[in-house]
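Note to self: keep these together.
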Amino acid sequence: MGHLSLPSKRNPKQWKLLDLVSAAFFGLVVLFLFLVFTPFGDSLAASGRQALLLSSSDPRQRHRLVELIEAGQHPQPIEACSAEEVDHMPCEDPRRNSQLSREMNFYRERQCPIPDETPLCLIPPPNGYRVPVRWPDSLHKIWHANMPHNKIAERKGHQGWMKEDGEYFIFPGGGTMFPEGAIPYIEKLGQYIPIRNGGLRTALDMGCGFLRFMTNNSSSQVASWGGYLMKEGLLPLSFAPRDSHKSQIQFALERGIPAFVAMLGTRRLPFPAFSFDLVHCSRCLIPFTAYNATYFIEVDRLLRPGGYLVISGPPVQWAKQDKEWADLQGVARALCYELIAVDGNTVIWKKPSGDSCLPSQNEFGLHLCDESVDPSSAWYYKLEKCVTPQSSIKGKYDVGGIPSWPDRLNKAPARAALMKSGIDLFEADTRRWARRVAYYKNSLNVKLGTPAVRNVMDMNAFFGGFAAALASDPVWVMNVVPARKPITLDVIFDRGLIGVYHDWCEPFSTYPRTYDLIHVSGIESLVKAPGSGKNRCSLVDLMVEMDRILRPEGTVVIRDSPEAIERVARIANAVRWTATIHEKEQESHGSQKILVATKNFWTLTSASH
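Structure:
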C-alpha cells in the first residue's frame, strides 16, 4: 500500500518559530556543558560566588557560601572589601549607630550587626601600608602611610602629642595635661604614688568619652602616658571611643601600646570588679558626678582596694567649674577616699579597704549593692547606681594584700580558690603553658621573643597561662575570657596581667591590623553553645574577624582537635593565610594538633588579579 502525502497543517512562520526554539535549547545545552567542563566555567562560577559573598541581601545565599568555604569547596579566596573599609569596625560604625539614642552616649557604645547583615569580605590595608615599625622604636615613630590621619598632628602638634616628619609620625611624648612630656608628668605622680616598688602593676588609662568636647579636647594623648608608664614596670590599658580625631586608639596600637575601643556610657566596662591598681584620667572629661555619680561608681568598681585614682584636668581647680570640682570631691568623701594630693590641676585619691565608712546618708544617695548584683559580670551589663561592696568577693585582693610584681605573676591568687580545685588548676595551667610556649619558640619557630611580635592576643585565655609564659618577652598580651565561659578574668588581673570579656560571635572592639600574633586554644569552643555543642555562629565569620584584626605578615597559632584543625585549615586558604599543621608537644596529653599560619601581605591591586 502506498503512503498518502498529507498536507502540512503548519505554515512557514510556525516552522521558523519551532526552529528558533530548538536552536536556543541546543545552544543552552552546549553552554551548560562548556561551563561545567572548562576552566572558564570554574572561573565564572567562582566570580559569581564572590559577588554573592559581598551581598547581604539574601541570608540564604550567604549561608550557602559559608558552607562551601567550610567544606573547602570554594576555590578562590574571599574577596577584598572596598578601599573605604580599611579602618572598618563593625560594632563601632558611625554610619550605623548615628540614628540611636544620645542618652548617656548609648549610640557610641558597641552596636553590632548580625552576621547576615555583614558582607563577607576581607579588610584591605591602606594604600602604601608597610610592616609596622618594630618595638621599641615604634613608641617614638610610626609609618605615616599606615595611618594617614593628620587631625591630631594638625590640632595638637603644638602640645607635643605627635608631629608629621617625612614618612613618619613622631611622638615627642607630650599631651594636653603634660606639654613638657610624659616622663616629667610620671615623675610628678611618683612623688605621691609608689610607682616603682612593684606594688602597683595594672593601670587603666581612661579615654575621652563625650562628643561635645571632642572637637577641641581629647584625653589619652595617643596613650603616651601608658607607653612611658610601661618603662616603670606597670602594665597600662588605654581605652577611648571612636573619635573625631580619627583613630586615636589605633595610633596607640600602632605604637605597641595596649589599648582597645570602648565607651563609658550605659554599660559596665568589660572588666571584673577590683581589677586595676591605678586608674588614670588625663583630661578625659568624663562627668563622674552625673547621673547620681554613676560613672564614679563604675570607676570604684574597677579600682582595687588600696589603689589610686588620678584625675588631671577639668574640673580639678578649673576655671568656671567650681561646682563640678566641689561635687567630685563630695563623691570621693562619701566613698571615704583618702585625698593624697591636689597638685595644680591634678588630684590623687587612694581607695580605702573596707566598706564600713560609707555613710547611710549622703547627698548623692550612694548605697551598697545587695547580694543579687554580681560585681564582676560586665558583658552588656547595665551600669548600677550602687557601690560594689568589697565584702562581696572573698579573699585578699587589695593593694598590699597581694604580692608585688613580679611575684604575683605565678602565685595562685585568692580568687582562683573560688573555683573548684582552682589552686591546683592554676598551678597546672601555669606549668602547661610554660612547656607549650617553649615548644612554639624552639620547635615551631613562632617569632615570639623577637622584634617581629609586640601586640599579642590570646582569644581563650582561662587563667592567662599563655601570657604569663611570655612575661620576659618584649610583648603585651590582650587576654580575652569568652563571656559564656567561667569568669576567670579576675585571676588574670590579680596576677598582674590585663584582658577583657568578649563573645567571639561578635566582632572585637579594635581597629583592623591591631595584632602581630593571635593565639587560640580550642577555637571551636568559641562558636559553640556551652552544653549543647551546637554552633551559635560560624567558624568562617570568626576567622574573617581574626583576619581583620591581624596585621599583614602576622602569625596565627591555633590548637584544637585534629578534626577542628582540619576545618580551620580549609578556611585558612579562603582568608589568604599560608598554614602548616604540626603535632603537639610530646609532654601534653590528649589528641591535639597545632596550626601555625601567616597572613599574606596582599593589597587591593594584587587581590584583583
